[in-house]
Amino acid sequence: MDVFEAMLTRRSIRAFAPGEVTPEDLEEMLRAAMMAPSAGNAQPWQFVVVDDRAILDAVPEFSPYAAMAKQAPLGVLVCGDLSQEKYPGYWVQDCSAAIQNLLLAAHGLGYGAVWTGVYPMPDRVLGFKKLLSLPHHIIPLGFVVIGRPGQRPKHRDRYDEAKIHRNGYRA
């Protein structure tokens, strides 16, 4: 799939059809995620792959917008590793770029995915820390739920000239 086609056609998928994510495809997605840019090339991310049905089913108990995890074969928790930061505070941007690469790779391989927010919601951060036994220096940013798409949202052009400003902000 062409990179522009991937960016313009990727949508958040919240319904999943039966089918697994192959280990090879998961590795490709994680390789793409790890190619994201990061401040000072610190790459301060850690990825927790969750494919245990009981763990996936427990996620919506503290992360209500991740209810679709109950029907998906896996999720990837993208975390910032504060011990790996070169420039403190940039882990959020770095891990966000990794999530976007992960989403595009999933789409390019024919999967559906959705980024569910974790950080900075204290209940969600604590929920994932407890559920997955995360050490104190690992902060969960987002939980990406992945599987075979059970829906096909329509393409909509989101380009908006009014949101473009040149050489300063204009109201």
TrEMBL record:
This protein's UniProt keywords: Flavoprotein, FMN, Oxidoreductase
Claim: Membrane is one of the keywords in the record: no
InterPro entries the record matches: Nitroreductase (IPR029479), Nitroreductase-like (IPR000415)
GO MF, any single term: oxidoreductase activity
Cofactor: FMN
Pfam families per the UniProt record, alphabetical: Nitroreductase
Nitroreductase domain segment(s): 9-57, 67-147
Cross-referenced CDD domains: nitroreductase (cd02150)
Membership in a protein family: Belongs to the nitroreductase family.
Protein name in UniProt: Nitroreductase
Organism: Alkalidesulfovibrio alkalitolerans DSM 16529
